[in-house]
Amino acid sequence: MRTTSWVGELWDRFVAWDPGLGRLRLAVAGALSMASALGVEFAIFSVAGAAAQTTLVATLLGSVVAMMGSMALLNEQGAGTKILTAAFFPVAIGVGILAGVAVGGHTDLMLAVFVAVMFVAVFVRRFGVAFFFYGFMTWMGYFFAAFLKATMATVPTLLIAVGIGTAWVLLLSLTFMRTNPLRTLGHVVRAFDARARAVARAGADLLEDVVEGRRTERARRALRRQQDRLADVALLVEGWSGEPGALPEGWSGPALRRRLIDAHQGVDTIAAAALALADGDRGTAREALRLLDRLARHDDAAAARLARNLTSAPEHWPARHLAVATLEFVELAASRSVPPPAAAEVDEFEPAVSLAMGNLPGSASVAADVPARGGRWNPLARVDLTTRQAVQVAVAGALAIVLGRELDTTRYYWAVIAAFVMFAGTATRSESFIKGVNRVVGTLVGLFASIWLADLTSGSTALVLITIVASMFFGFYLLQVSYVYMIFFVTIMVGQLYTVLHQFSDGLLVLRLEETAVGALAGFVVALVVLPLSTRDTVRTARDGVLTALAELLDAASQCLAGECSPAGLDARSRGLDDRVRGLALVAKPLTRPLVWRNSPSRTRHRLTLYAALAGHARALTVALRRPGPRQDAERAAQASRSLAAAATELTAATPGRREPAAERPLADADAALFDGGCTPEDLASDPVRLPLIHLQHLLCELAEPGEPLSPRPLPTAAVAL
């Protein structure tokens, strides 16, 4: 137990903002690889006596290969895997270079092949993460060769530069940039604790508003946002737990998962109690504020002492729930013992979430099986995601070439690049539109910064190089925060490059903005018209995934209550449900903004809150079933769990825009099983198994009704804070 100073709290916020320090590692790897490769390439070609123009082109190509290779190799595990992945860098970029040289001097043929290369670059992504980079390198090799008018005589020099860049980044990835899974998992677990403290801090801020008599809407939203962030980092721990060599000695994946689920449930209870206390009297809120402030500051001893004081008022249920949850969390945070293995655990650990380049997967993992619109008349509508995006990229690239050449016959490739990247990391047409807008905004703001910096760095090569490397660092570091930041710093870097080449002008940067806007427009038109993937269709698929995962968990819970299986297997199902809810929130994000026609952002946000609450109460049920002790009327609880599973399954068939409520019969059966057994409200509130089932029934009733929710029986007073 420790008390943090303001420095400690600042470090907590940094760790929570960058779980596992993944952003920092990516930024350092990208900037270090690019900067050092520039020096290595320049030194080698200068010593070899190459011409200035040849040295410049080779140095740029090799440094770009090193930068991209650093991203491809950063989270690869094992020297053999890294070597095998890097071995194909020269192959991929060499194919692009040879294709570019082969069509040199034939403009129409060059443009046609450019479109074909874009199609192939996206199509090969189906074969794995490494092929994402291979495809991009092939595209980049073609770009270098075609637009720099390379000849067959220069191909060996270009390939030598690529080989040097590949060897250099491989050396860095095996030494300075080697990812240590054990250390990374430790950082992610540390981030979980930091985000748990951030939930406590948000709860304290909410209660401070109550005590001071201020409005609490913003503080309530901030608290829920911190809970969502905690769930994300819990899934990141889950994913890294499956990496070879990541777990500390004596620990197992299921044991770590169980420990974090218990802690996660404790933090959720703390947040729920804070929300309930915000509607109570100021005196109790003031005491709870002191407790949460101590917990947020890592002063666990003081927090535990204040919690024990709150337990002396058993009639005030929110305060009592806060106290008990705080004591449980403090005990878990202080414990360093390895949890005993459950009887049903096996040696093989399968994480409930798979990582993508060390991070949680993006929307493409949710949209992979969603068909595009127009399936009745278009046979291509049901092709897989990568094929569909390859077609879209090819069409968008061709349109960008036509429109871009109308603006400028030499630098239209900026429009092509803008169209190309719109389909990287996106799945639906709304996401593509948002990415295109972000690219234009980042370019526009970066344009003003580039003009200002060009005056400061003009005539100083050292300042230019420092600005370029710093731009790449901050671009990579802030990429996951917003694509706008990445493009902002890329625009600055481009301006600095033209300063070095003595080609910088305000008009050139304005042309880049215009070409970028044209490319974004081409990409959006294609995303809207050519095999469009509807955001609403994707959200419905993700919603069905959430409800199906919930139904499977509730079915398994009913079997556990009937004594037919061990509750240890529910942990993985609970984490799987968390991942489904995260995917739903990810693809529904465009619907939380007033960007989509006939959409209600407030309603979307509210329903996302309900689905997140489903996962939270399912987690509470999982924890309750694992804890020993007699069950109160386990047979009726099992019946309620089966009925709720049936209700969740029926809701997957509910069509949007319906006017009748869905799943009325199973929800009524669950209501009867939960409330008609002669139990008093106090008995229900003290039953850790039936209480989350009651909450789940209330949530499913609200989701089942298109207008006002079905009328479930009121929650027991003692359950309000859970």
Search tags:
722 residues, single chain, mainly alpha, 0% strand, globular, 28 helices
Structure explained in plain terms:
The chain is mainly α and 722 residues long. The chain contains 28 helices and no strands. The protein is globular, with a radius of gyration of 28 Å. The model has no long low-confidence stretch (mean pLDDT 87).
Strand content: under 5%
Query: Which geometry do the CA atoms define?
Result: globular
Helix content: over 70%
Nearest-angstrom radius of gyration?
28 Å
In terms of topology, how is this protein built?
Elements: H1 6-17, H2 22-47, H3 52-73, H4 79-87, H5 89-102, H6 107-123, H7 129-147, H8 155-174, H9 181-212, H10 217-241, H11 253-277, H12 282-296, H13 300-310, H14 317-334, H15 364-367, H16 385-407, H17 413-421, H18 429-457, H19 461-477, H20 483-500, H21 506-529, H22 535-561, H23 570-588, H24 601-626, H25 634-651, H26 664-675, H27 681-686, H28 690-704
Brief characterization of the structure:
The protein has 28 helices and no strands.
